[in-house]
Amino acid sequence: MAHLDQYRTVARIALSHHVVKKSRFFAEATCVQTQASVKKFLTEVAERNPRASHYCYAYSIGSGNTRREYATDAGEPTHSAGPPILSAIHACDLSNVVCVVARYYGGINLGVGGLIRAYGQCARDCLRNATIETRILYEKLYLKVNYPDIGNVVNLCKRFGGKVVDIKYDPDPVVEMRIRRSTLDTFQSQLQGYGIGT
Questions:
Q1: C-alpha R_g of the chain
Q2: Helices (H) and strands (E) in the chain, counts
Q3: Is residue 190 exposed (0-12), middle (13-18) or buried (19+ Cβ within 10 Å)?
C-alpha cells in the first residue's frame, strides 16, 4: 500500500551513457522539489554538455493530487524523447525527480522509433544506476504549552515518530516539532485528550 507521506527518489546525481548509430546520449537524474530546481539542474547539465544538439527531459514532483509532471522533446520529433523519459520515471516509481538526456547528433537519423528506444533506454539505465532512497514528509508544528505539559507533548511526539526541533521558553513554552504527515490528525486528537490545543 502506498503511503501518502513518503516517496522514493534519487539520492544523488545518477548518470548513464548510450550510443546509437554514432549519436551519443548522456542522461543525468537528481532529486528536485520545485520547478526552479528543475531549471537550475537543466542549466548545469547544459554546462556539462555544451555541444549537445538536444536537451530533452521530464520531471515528476509531488504526489497524489498535487503531483506535477512535465516532459519535453526539446526539438526532437513529437513524443520521441520527453514521454519515454517520463515513462522511465514512472517505471521506477519515483517522485520529486528530474531526468535530463543530452544528445550529441551523430549524423545518422534514427527515426521516431529509434529515438523513443534510445531516450527511453538511456533514461532507464540512468535511473537503474541511481541510489534510491525513501523520504518521509513531515509537517512542522509550533505548540504553545504550559510548563507541566512539556513532558507529555515531547513523549507523545516521540511515540508518533516525530522529532522535537526546539523548545523556547520566552515567555511561555513553545515546542517546535516535526510530525509525520499521515499521523497528524491522530496526533492532534491525542493532544486534545491531554487538554492541549493545537
A1: 23
A2: 5, 10
A3: middle
The C-alpha cell that represents 44 in the structure block: 548545469
Residue whose C-alpha cell is 536537451: 55
3-state SS of the chain: helix, strand, coil percent to 5? 35, 35, 30
The one-letter amino acid at 163: K
Task: Decide if domain 6-135 falls under CATH 3.30.230.30.
Answer: yes
Smallest CA-to-CA distance from 155 within 120, 196, 121, 122 is with 196
Domain spans in the chain, listed from the N-terminal domain onward? 6-135, 138-193
Asked if CATH classification 3.40.50 holds for the domain at 138-193, the reply, yes or no, is no
Residues 62-78 pLDDT 10s:
877 788 999 999 999 99
Q: Contact at 8 Å (CB) between 72 and 79?
A: no
Q: Which three cell numbers stand for residue 146?
A: 504550559
Alpha-carbon distance 64 to 61, whole Å? 10
Global pTM value: 0.76
